[in-house]
Design a protein that fits this description.
InterPro entries: AAA+_ATPase, ABC_transporter-like_ATP-bd, ABC_transporter-like_CS, P-loop_NTPase. Keywords: ATP-binding, Nucleotide-binding. It comes from Paractinoplanes pyxinae. The chain starts with a strand and ends with a helix. The chain has helices at residues 43-51, 92-102, 107-116, 132-144, 162-177, 212-219, 224-239; strands at 3-14, 17-28, 32-36, 58-63, 66-67, 77-80, 150-154, 181-186, 197-202, 205-210. The chain has a domain at 84-147. The chain is 35% helix and 27% strand. It has seven helices and ten strands. The chain binds adenosine-5'-triphosphate. Adenosine-5'-triphosphate binds at residues 14-15, 19, 37, 39-45, 187.
Length: 240
């Protein structure tokens, strides 16, 4: 399968407002696709539609060949929300073992995931006593358990120091090289260049869907933040 996710004409309303205005895009399998855009542009809403927890007004979202939200996809998909979804009163290891058990897996798989996110030293600490960055890595560890085919990560690097951010991005690419598809949202443009492909969202519309190199070439600048601004200006000029 070439595309892990196919979105067609997706319209979503939240609180009586249209927040996605007919988005269509493909997310290729085995790559890291970045979802970038300003705060409130609709990144989390699009992610929720891919994960299958968002009521949609119209359009379709197919994930690994099935409609988003289908029961068989639960085992194929790892999702990390912006708010860490781990139990504060359990240790990192207890959390990981709990999520492993839910997938019918054992302690080895749980410990592997903890090591993968660089939390082996903190594995016996209660999640409630971790820093914000460590807590989001604990969440990521739980999502990695069972080798999901699609990993959807909503701002996974927020609160991480530069060294850890670099380590996490290296890990994302290792996972992609092993066949995992990753959809990673960020509003930090300096992370855009680390992605294989970019989806640029603004005000609920897709304004860019290409490789970083192609987006740089089209906008005539190496700086992806500036490229994003130029794309916006071009669209504003066309609309005026
Ligand atoms: N529960 C909700 N009810 C009503 N409107 C909502 C709700 N959640 C989000 N919205 C609105 O939907 C729009 C898109 O929000 P979304 O969370 O998808 O943006 P985002 O790009 O992920 O933002 P951020 O980077 O700040 O997380 C925003 O205008 C937001 O105000």
């Amino acid at each position: 399968m070439d595309n892990a996710v196919e979105v067609r004409d997706l319209v979503v309303e939240r609180g009586k407002r249209t927040v996605l205005h007919g988005i269509s895009c493909d997310i290729p399998a085995g790559q890291v696709t970045g979802l970038l855009g300003p705060s409130g542009s609709g990144k989390t809403t699009l992610i929720r539609a891919v994960v299958g927890v968002q009521i949609v007004r119209s359009g379709t979202v197919m994930v690994l060949g099935r409609p988003a939200g289908s029961a068989p996809l639960r085992r194929e998909l790892g999702y990390v929300t912006q708010a860490p979804s781990v139990y504060a009163d359990l240790s990192v290891r207890e959390n990981a073992r709990y999520f492993a058990a839910l997938r019918g897996l054992g302690a080895t798989e749980a410990d592997r995931a903890i090591t993968d996110v660089g939390l082996a030293q903190a594995c016996n600490q209660l999640v409630g006593n971790l820093s914000g960055g460590q807590r989001s890595r604990a969440s990521l560890a739980c999502a990695l358990i069972g080798h999901p085919k699609l990993l959807v990560l909503d701002e996974p690097t927020v609160g991480q120091d530069p060294v850890l951010r670099a380590d996490l991005w290296a890990r994302f690419h290792e996972l992609a090289a092993g066949g995992t598809t990753l959809l990673v949202s960020s509003h930090v443009m300096d992370e855009a260049g680390r992605c294989d492909r970019l989806l640029l969202v603004r005000e609920g519309r897709l304004i860019g869907d290409d490789t970083p190199a192609a987006i740089r070439a089209r906008s005539g600048t190496d700086d992806l933040e500036e490229a994003f601004l130029r794309l916006i200006r071009q669209l504003d000029e066309v609309a005026a």
